[in-house]
Amino acid sequence: MSTDKQGTRILARTFFTQLRASGYTPMQIIGIATELLDLVTEDIKGENVAQPTPEPRAEFRKEA
After folding, report:
1. pLDDT tens digits along 1-10
2. Nearest Cα to 17, choosing from 26, 8, 4, 27?
3. Residues 27-56: what's their mean pLDDT?
4. HEC profile for the chain?
5. What percent of the chain lies above the pLDDT cut of 90?
6. Residue 4, in any domain of the structure
7. What angle do CA 24, 28, 32 make, to 5 degrees?
8. Is 14 within a domain?
9. How far apart, in whole angstroms, are the C-alpha atoms of residue 64 and residue 57?
10. Which domain holds residue 37?
11. Residue 24: its pLDDT value, please?
């Protein structure tokens, strides 16, 4: 397992353990995970919108 994957796994396990120790139920943790995925999805969509679309190269432009 790569260091990056291992670090991600450790962080997720630590987060899960802390949530359970704080009294969150498995269903509540699923809700939190769903919200996190929604936030990441919106962030990715925002990055795609923020990037300008490149102009087509002259040889591919349709001239009217």
Report:
1. 677 889 999 9
2. 26
3. 86
4. CCHHHHHHHHHHHHHHHHHHHCCCCHHHHHHHHHHHHHHHHHHHHHHHHHCCCCCCCHHHCCCC
5. 62
6. no
7. 110
8. no
9. 16
10. 24-50
11. 98
**Identity of the amino acid at 25:** T
Share of the chain above pLDDT 70, in %: 73
Q: How far apart are CA 2 and CA 58, in angstroms?
A: 44
| Size (the chain), residues | 64
Q: Report yes or no on 62 lying in a domain.
A: no
Domain count, the chain: 1
User: Which residues lie below 8 Å from residue 29, measured CB to CB, with a gap of 6+?
Assistant: 16, 19, 20
Those residues with Cβ within 8 angstroms of residue 19's Cβ, 6 or more apart along the chain or in another chain = 28, 29, 32
- pTM equals 0.64
Amino acid 56: pLDDT: 63
In a domain, 7, yes or no: no
